[in-house]
């Protein structure tokens, strides 16, 4: 039986937009999608604001019953205690976050997060009922030395060590060289790695989990190129950085089906 995967468009705001700007943005995004009669069966939408915005986004989403999901950009591998500056998955769950980004390349490179840290964070997310949006991807050097799939596949295996992926998982393939560079991977490259990641998911978690897990592409996604990625059979959406801060651009990306006639 073929499993259908609802496309997923996720906006990673990084360290942009304060809580007042977040309220305005989410409200306008909801209006824009409602105006365009967006069918959320065509694409689920989530935003990942800074931690300080999440309470405001929760209040707006719940008061207006908006069909927009949200989550944290990171979480602590610990549940509570003397971990200054860290945020527990328990707190994100209390704010009705559905998702949490884990292992973004900026966390791995700027904050020295290892595969073991990423693995512990995936487990922490599951302990609190959050769905990890697990980022994997190779640097330009990795690409030259090992090809496109080797590093993302190794990162996926490490992140899922001792994890029941059936508890909920989204994988985001984000080649580091494509993030914020304006130079996206080709759809064929994204498909090749997404297929390799899905095969590994099958090996680790079984065919059913592999078939139902959404695998996103991330790295310089724009309204102009989103349709080409979504035409690939193993690419189920996008993790969008820079373009997620531009309301019209992000709204167009979400509406990739109608907007670009995919
Ligand atoms: C990201 O940071 O996850 C990302 C994909 O950024 P951008 O879309 O700006 O390349």
TrEMBL record:
Protein EC: 5.3.1.1
Single annotated GO MF: triose-phosphate isomerase activity
Enzyme class: isomerase
InterPro entries assigned to the protein according to its UniProt record, in alphabetical order: Aldolase_TIM, TIM_sf, TrioseP_Isoase_bac/euk, Triosephosphate_isomerase, Triosephosphate_isomerase_AS
Keyword tags: Cytoplasm, Gluconeogenesis, Glycolysis, Isomerase
SUPFAM superfamilies the record matches: Triosephosphate isomerase (TIM) (SSF51351)
Subcellular location: Cytoplasm
Domain of life: Bacteria
Coiled coil location: none
Pfam families: TIM
Xref: Gene3D superfamilies: Aldolase class I
Reaction(s) this enzyme catalyzes, per UniProt: D-glyceraldehyde 3-phosphate = dihydroxyacetone phosphate
Binding site for substrate: 12-14, 180, 220, 241-242
Chief localisation class: cytoplasm
Active site: residue positions: 104, 174
Membrane-crossing residue ranges in chain numbering: none
UniProt pathway annotation: Carbohydrate biosynthesis; gluconeogenesis; Carbohydrate degradation; glycolysis; D-glyceraldehyde 3-phosphate from glycerone phosphate: step 1/1
Function: Involved in the gluconeogenesis. Catalyzes stereospecifically the conversion of dihydroxyacetone phosphate (DHAP) to D-glyceraldehyde-3-phosphate (G3P).
Homology family: Belongs to the triosephosphate isomerase family.
PANTHER family reported for this sequence: TRIOSEPHOSPHATE ISOMERASE
The protein's assembly and partners: Homodimer.
Protein known as: Triosephosphate isomerase
């Amino acid at each position: 039986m073929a499993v259908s995967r609802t496309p997923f468009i996720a906006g990673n705001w990084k360290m942009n937009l304060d809580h007042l700007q977040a309220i305005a943005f989410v409200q306008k995004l909801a209006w824009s999608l409602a105006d365009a009669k967006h069918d959320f069966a065509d694409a689920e939408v989530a935003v990942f604001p800074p931690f300080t915005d999440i309470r405001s986004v929760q209040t707006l989403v719940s008061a207006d019953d908006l069909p927009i999901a949200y989550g944290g950009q990171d979480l602590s591998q610990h549940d509570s205690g003397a971990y200054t500056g860290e945020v527990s998955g328990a707190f994100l769950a209390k704010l009705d976050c559905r998702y949490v980004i884990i292992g973004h390349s900026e966390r791995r490179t700027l904050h020295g997060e290892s595969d073991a840290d990423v693995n512990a964070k995936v487990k922490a997310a599951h302990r609190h009922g959050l769905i990890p949006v697990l980022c994997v991807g190779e640097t330009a050097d990795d690409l030259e030395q090992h090809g496109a799939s080797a590093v993302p596949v190794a990162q996926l295996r490490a992140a899922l060590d001792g994890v029941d992926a059936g508890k909920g998982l989204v994988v985001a393939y984000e080649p580091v060289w494509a993030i914020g560079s304006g130079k996206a991977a080709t759809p064929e490259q994204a498909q090749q790695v997404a297929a390799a990641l899905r095969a590994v998911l099958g090996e680790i978690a079984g065919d059913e989990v592999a078939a139902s897990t959404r695998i996103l592409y991330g790295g310089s996604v724009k309204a102009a190129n989103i349709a080409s990625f979504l035409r690939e059979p193993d690419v189920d959406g996008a993790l969008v950085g820079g373009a997620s801060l531009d309301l019209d651009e992000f709204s167009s990306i979400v509406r990739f089906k109608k907007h670009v006639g995919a």
